[in-house]
Write a structure and sequence with these properties.
Layout: E1 2-6, E2 9-18, E3 24-27, E4 33-38, H1 43-52, H2 54-64, E5 74-77, E6 80-87, E7 94-96, E8 99-103, H3 108-133, H4 135-139, E9 148-152, E10 159-162, E11 167-171, H5 179-191, H6 200-209, H7 213-226
Parallel strand pairs: 2-4, 6-8, 9-11
Antiparallel strand pairs: 1-2, 3-4, 5-6, 7-8, 10-11
């Protein structure tokens, strides 16, 4: 298979030449592009055809993206890839000697719960580190005393904030990606302590701390759909 970059990701493609007049493009369930075209059509023309269909390709690849707690043979931990290893002697998930160790439990739900517990602890610790690192800047506009930070796997949100209860929740899926994404979501929720809605004042405040928030959020939305986690 040949490869090319589409919207920052490597995508494989195959060209099949037949006795047909037109050129057709299909995104296969396996995640590669199949081009069928006339025998005399050049590779350069095929590449131009692919480029003109980039938006459609990205949309279909996103639709095919699978969401899972961890892939069969690898795990993502803050953007780094580690091989997975099941251990019958353990009841918790942990990182050791360059491997992500998963408990080999009778029920799949129990394994997933252990994995999410690992990611929950991971992002809680990183969230505390971010708050300490950004301490002086945050203290100018926010009172974080008494705020409870919680983690859980969520289906439709990266985070949530309950200003009255002073509770901020973070999605454990954030433990799979570069910490900059957790930083952006954490600041988003902290800003809700002052501004509960998503109006202009909210974004003025948020962009003071995370100027590229909109770009980061778009990247995060895309990665969650396309990367097995």
């Amino acid at each position: 298979m040949l490869e090319l970059l589409i919207a920052g990701r490597k995508v494989s493609y195959v060209i099949q030449r037949k006795k047909i007049k037109n050129t057709y493009l299909r995104v296969k369930p396996e995640g590669y592009i199949l081009i069928t075209t006339h025998a005399k059509i050049s590779n350069a023309t095929v590449l131009d055809f692919i480029r003109r269909n980039e938006k459609r390709i990205v949309k279909e690849l996103d639709r095919l993206g699978k969401k899972q707690v961890v892939s069969l043979d690898k795990a993502l931990i803050f953007g780094a890839v580690y091989p997975c290893h099941k251990n019958q002697a353990s009841t918790t998930a942990f990182l050791a000697d360059g491997e992500f160790v998963i408990p080999d439990l009778p029920e799949e739900k129990a394994e997933k719960k252990a994995i999410e517990a690992y990611y929950g602890n991971l992002i809680w610790q990183e969230a505390m580190r971010i708050c300490i690192t950004r301490g002086t800047a945050l203290a100018e506009q926010f009172d974080l005393s008494g705020v409870h930070f919680k983690t859980q796997r969520m289906k439709s949100q990266f985070g949530s904030c309950q200003p009255q209860k002073r509770v901020i929740k973070l999605n454990t899926v954030l433990g799979r990606f570069d910490p900059k994404y957790l930083d952006a979501i954490l600041l988003h929720e902290i800003c809700h302590l002052r501004v509960p809605n998503h109006g202009p004042e909210f974004y003025r405040l948020l962009l003071e701390y995370v100027p590229e928030y909109r770009k980061i959020r778009r990247e995060l939305n895309r990665m969650v759909k396309t990367i097995g986690v």
